[in-house]
Amino acid sequence: MEEYSNMRQWAIFFILLLVSFLLMKFLGALGIIFGIILLLYTLAGIKIIYNYEKAVIFTLGYYSGVLSGGLIYILPGFQKLIKVDMRIINYELPEQVLLTADNVNITVRSTVFYRIVDPGKVIMNIRDLNRTILNYAQTNLRDIFGKYNLNDILQKKEEIGVELRDIIQKEIGEWGVDIIAIKIQDLIVPQEILSALTQKAIAERQRDAEILRAQGLAQAKVIESQGELQAAENFKKAAEILSESDYGIVLRFLDILRNSQNEKIIVVPPEIFNLFKKLGK
Description:
alpha+beta, 9 helices, 9 strands
């Protein structure tokens, strides 16, 4: 961006101002008339540019440079000033009906956020910036959406916006424009397609729930079998310990009797088991 010297402009202003006063002082009535005309002409060239703006200057139709914000001066009739807003601009693109890779028509609403970084290049190269961005965005949106299925588009709105931003930035970035972001705000899907997607999502949730339920039951059976195995091992160890003592079984019976309350318990003396063993031999 080529900065134009505002000091040169103000030097011209003071020279014209001095000439107008000299005319009014030394040339009588005619000098006063010409001096007032020159004074009004000189004052008409004073302009105010806000800090968020830049002024592109053309002298006799030729590009001269860019002036920053503040109080500036141009030569009326010889120089032209074009103000350029340097703030971030959000431009809402019109609704566009696009065809996806799986032949579904969807309506897209999106917004482009951009700012001008080189006002001289923008004025010299682009006649209508918003229309240029619109044409690039619509053309590339059509190409990008044609590569994806509907499910991918619904899940990858941010990625598609970034991809579109990179393409447009590559094409018009050299003209002094910075595309900050492109946000896909709304995707309007036909009602019948939306109903089918809803039914599909419900079926997938039910399937996942059944899978989780089956896995839970299988895990419970494994835990139950492990518990039974551990209990069997404990019973085996307890039987071995009780068999090592002559009175171990008797003490166990007495412990059961002590812990029982209103339950009916039949106690069989250990001698009966010994009798059965002898008869078996």
